[in-house]
Write a structure and sequence with these properties.
790 residues; alpha+beta; Penicillin-binding protein 1b fold; Penicillin binding protein transpeptidase fold; elongated; disordered N terminus
């Protein structure tokens, strides 16, 4: 019978509703957040800088007392109402605070009543999302998070009898039929909100009588099992409101971020009206593509809200007079701004068991990225590459063929914690694709030399003042050929102190030491510090005949910066699952944590410290000297340049007391760039280090060691002042050194400064000894050409 058949159908649909809707889990992408800006007394943030950050994060300036997401400017102070934000520690409630400034720094934090605050954290900015395969996106809201004005507006426009009907409104269907017949077109729909939800959640898009009947039955059964508040909350989360490329924007929570860059509870009435008006046609009323049509639709909704007394006349007039206030960029909408960094996040999640299947479960991933440092790194790289390309094009355009454009990488991390603060994978910083920071394995050149000399120090047979021989050395290769390494200046310097050999990056000296201590121990040192692959153990390894990605190089130099502790570089600070009160903080050494990783000592501090002091000498007297004309005189930094064969790769890696920075410059076609590590990558490195709020490198000298001043030319202990060629070295206490009573003759002018076109200084190509005989014509031409392309 009909009744029995209807009962069977209803029973089947009941089971479907209870199974799917009762245990509903909307597909919600994993959100990825940058680190929170944390302020405290003494923070080096000016009032202007903080306002800039607030504007980027879509905080709004007001004249009255702020609400969450707003701020008020006063004389030398700012009153800020932070937003509610999820964090690793749990949900942070909004906080109203007063921030006072003086001399470009925060001087005081307090509540409005004057109660002191130790620190203040902003909500972490959303920098991207990890989507499930089907590409749907939404921000799930609980019933308490849905603004009352939104629910009232949806009912007024879409289903004014929502609170009275039981899922199907037959009077609304009749009314819609009459309106549409009179108009000769479909101007009004008869479906209730419940029917719309059923259609979106359970059914396909086919328009058949059977599907319409099923929709009506399911709407009634849904209302029988769930109350109105649950149903309208589900509707708010489910409704489709636009498209962002391949990403479908579902729900008012995400739509608010996508169109306005603001949280839903911060929207003004006219903004809510725009979103409600888009329900009927998200593409038709898209405010970015059809602004006039969207504005007209918004104003129609506002008029209806006034007519139905959802808003009063004053609110209507004010809202109607306002233009479409859309976000100028997709701030906080999930649009990826940092594709290279997010690629690192994906890989590190995947490497710790977080698969693509987890992407739709609404996790929150809190990363170590510092947006301020990221922008600094991006600007430094793009500015310098543009300048260098202009110079190269002017010099090297041949037969109308321009050289390949330069590409580059910048990585900034905190060596002590391993936190990656910035990662730039190319000059087009918003383009996803080949990630040079992680995948461009390039010869590292002289960046390897500190690890050669560290291995020598570990052997116990060398110290920083040891005399080593920078003389011609011939090595028989496995191909039965003779290989003779050359120095950059085409000169050999004979016996020199080890510290000078590193400062001037002497090739023959490095190979001599490597052959003495063994190539295999050097390879082991590199692997221990973070080189992923086993290098080929040939003598050329001492000069950088090993390929590494910039991220690996950052790991290597982070180990030097920490005095021999390898702390894995990581992009993830912690993560939470949806609904959890607190999250998992990373890094963690908890063996039961799938994300566990921690530090490991890979070299003795008493071996690494003297080497690091030599890298400081590189910056003060050697191939990094150009940076000293720009960086503050009091800032102690350490570093090393690297250049591969034929100037194909320009490297600089170095660190301060709180940051390690690595820069690579080259081309995707592996063409010669004409740049050394000092003339290319050092420029970018210096700009980045100059912009960082960083500390000097100044660890305590290890017990049993002392600082001595030696003559840079011969390595003798200086007993009289001789600053011009005096080098400070750290050696074991009591080390016997020959004494010199006259200053040496180290040609410090070998690295005298020239002025770069932008005001930086750059080392000249090293010259000949004054007493050397005249060069041959061929030698003079070769060195002239090197000066041109340098």
């Amino acid at each position: 019978t009909f009744e029995a058949s209807n009962s069977v159908v209803s029973s089947r649909l009941d089971r479907q509703i209870l199974a799917e809707f009762g245990g509903r889990r909307w597909t919600e992408p994993t959100r990825v957040y940058a680190s929170s800006l944390e302020l405290q007394a003494g923070s080096h943030y000016s009032l202007r800088q903080l306002v800039g950050v607030l504007e980027q994060r879509r905080y709004r300036q007001v004249q009255r007392l702020p609400r969450p997401g707003e701020y008020q400017l006063r004389s030398h102070e700012l009153v800020l109402y932070t937003r509610r934000a999820q964090s690793i520690e749990g949900l942070r409630e909004p906080l109203l605070a007063r921030i006072r400034f003086a001399a470009d720094a925060v001087t005081n934090l307090s509540t409005l009543s004057g109660e002191p605050l130790q620190r203040l954290r902003l909500d972490p900015p959303l920098i991207g999302s990890l989507f499930p395969i089907h590409g749907e996106d939404r921000l799930i809201l609980s019933p308490d998070e849905v603004p009352r004005l939104l629910t009232a507006s949806i009912k007024a426009i879409e289903d004014r009898d929502f609170d009275q009907h039981s899922g199907v409104d037959y009077s609304a269907i009749a009314r819609a039929l009459w309106v549409n017949l009179r108009a000769g077109a479909v101007e009004q729909g008869g479906s209730t909100l419940t029917q719309q939800l059923v259609k979106s959640y359970f059914l396909d898009g086919r328009r058949t009588l059977k599907r319409k009947i099923t929709e009506a039955i399911m709407a009634q059964r849904l209302e029988a099992h769930y109350d109105k508040r649950e149903i309208i909350t589900a509707y708010v989360n489910e409704v489709y409101l636009g498209q962002d490329g391949a990403r479908a924007v579902h729900g008012f929570g995400l739509a608010s971020q996508f169109y306005f860059g603001r949280a839903l509870d911060e929207l003004e009435p006219e903004q809510i009206a725009l979103l409600v008006g888009m329900i009927r046609g998200p593409s038709l009323y898209d405010p970015r593509r059809n602004a006039d049509r969207a504005l007209a639709r918004r104003n129609y909704v506002l008029a209806e809200l006034k007519n139905q007394r959802v808003i009063d006349g004053v609110t209507y007039q004010r809202a109607h007079a306002r233009s479409l206030t859309l976000a100028t960029a997709y701030d906080n909408s999930g649009r990826t701004y940092y594709p290279a960094f997010l690629d690192l996040v994906r890989r590190q999640l995947s490497g710790r068991g977080f698969s693509s299947e987890n992407a739709g479960t609404g996790h929150s991933v809190f990363t170590t990225l510092d947006p301020r440092v990221q922008r600094l790194a991006e600007q430094a790289l793009t500015t310098e590459l543009t300048r260098m390309d202009k110079v190269r094009t002017n010099k090297k355009t041949k037969n109308g063929v321009r050289p390949a454009p330069l590409e580059g990488v910048v990585i900034v991390a905190r060596p002590g914690t391993g936190a990656v603060l910035a990662l730039v994978g190319g000059r087009n910083t918003t383009l996803a694709g080949f990630n040079r920071a992680l995948d461009a394995r390039r010869p590292i050149g002289s960046l390897v030399k500190p690890f050669v000399y560290l291995t020598a120090l570990e052997s116990g047979r060398y110290h920083a003042a040891s005399i080593i021989d920078d003389s011609p050395v011939i090595v028989r290769t496995t191909a039965n050929r003779d290989w003779q390494p050359q120095n950059f200046d085409h000169l050999f310097h004979g016996p020199v102190p080890l510290v000078r050999a590193l400062a001037e990056s002497m090739n023959a000296a490095a190979v001599t030491v490597a052959l003495d201590i063994g190539i295999e121990p050097v390879a082991s040192t590199l692997n221990n510090f973070g080189l992923a692959r086993q290098p080929t153990t040939v003598p050329a390894l001492a000069l950088g005949a090993v390929d590494a990605a910039p991220f690996e190089v950052a790991q290597l130099y982070a180990g030097l910066a920490t005095g021999g502790v390898r702390q894995p570089l990581h992009a993830i600070a912690g993560l939470t699952s949806r609904g959890s009160a607190t999250g998992t903080r990373l890094p963690s050494t908890d063996a039961g944590n799938a994300f566990a990783f921690g530090p490991r000592r890979v070299a003795k501090f008493e071996d690494v410290y003297p080497l690091d002091r030599m890298l400081v000498t590189v910056m003060n007297h050697g191939t990094g000297r150009a940076s000293r004309a720009v960086l503050p005189p009091s800032l102690v930094v350490a570093g090393k340049s690297g250049t591969s064969s034929d100037y194909r790769d320009s490297w600089f890696a170095g660190f301060s007391g709180s940051h390690v920075v690595v820069v690579w410059i080259g081309t995707d076609t592996n063409e010669p760039t004409g740049l050394t590590g000092s003339s290319g990558a050092l420029r970018v490195w210096t700009r980045v280090m100059q912009g960082l709020d960083t500390d000097s490198w100044q660890p305590t000298i290890p017990p049993g060691f002392e600082v001595r001043q030696i003559d840079a030319e011969g390595g003798e202990l200086l007993s009289t002042p001789c600053e011009a060629q005096a080098l400070e070295v750290v050696v074991p206490r009591g080390t016997a050194l020959p004494e010199s009573y006259a200053c040496g003759s180290w040609p410090g002018q070998r690295f005298d400064d020239e002025v770069w076109s932008d005001g930086l200084s750059e080392p000249r190509v090293p010259g000949r000894d004054p007493g050397a005989p005249p060069r041959s014509l061929g030698e003079r031409l070769r060195n002239w050409w090197e000066r041109v392309i340098h």
